[in-house]
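In practice, a research group might receive sequence data for several interacting partners and want a quick structural hypothesis before committing to experiments. The following worked case mirrors that situation: the sequences arrive first, and a predicted assembly follows.
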Amino acid sequence: MREARIGTAVIQLVQGDITQQDTEAIVNAANRSLRGGGGVDGAIHRAGGPQILEECKKLGGCETGDAKTTSGGRLKAKYVIHAVGPIYRGGKHGEAELLASAYRRSLEEAAAHNVTSIAFPSISTGAYGYPIEEASRIALETVMNQLPRFPGIKLVRFVLFTKNDLQVYETQLDKILASQQR
Ligand code: AR6
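A structural hypothesis for the assembly, expressed as tokens:
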């Protein structure tokens, strides 16, 4: 586990399963239909039960780069924030901006629901094919830059599924912190 303090908040990097987190909100790496899927999305709907899908059906889908909120169903988390990252198509189709937007919109949704702690998966780096070195930099920089806007959010935890993914995030965090000290 790795931690960094950003103002009054803490960023944590852990290896684990997003569905098991005890943060008030967890973020889903969803698709525009909000009707479920594989990966994180499948795991969240399985663990949280059918109530989440019932709520999703009323939301009318979600644009890429946007995020919408449901309850957490049977999960420990009170809320699931369904964020839609971009499908990676080489990097010249606005992917970086859309990925940053998915993180930013998730934080806005969390703040709108008075959430103090939130867990993110590595959005877009599974089925959507975003190279994790670049995606992890965008994820961390966006959260670190946006956190001052949301003083109520005290904990942001990135939950990485594999040891390798955790190591990539750790390396990126170290690089960002080192560049800020210069
Ligand atoms: N906890 C944490 N991380 C996980 C878990 C888990 N339980 N399961 C997988 N990961 P993906 P995407 C990691 O494919 O790339 C879905 O079908 C995984 O190893 O879940 O944004 C949706 O419905 C990877 O590093 O999301 C969409 O159609 C990361 O989570 C599409 O996939 C994201 O992988 C979204 O693709």
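Before designing any experiment, note the following. The mean pLDDT is 97. Residues 8 and 154 are 7 Å apart (CA to CA).
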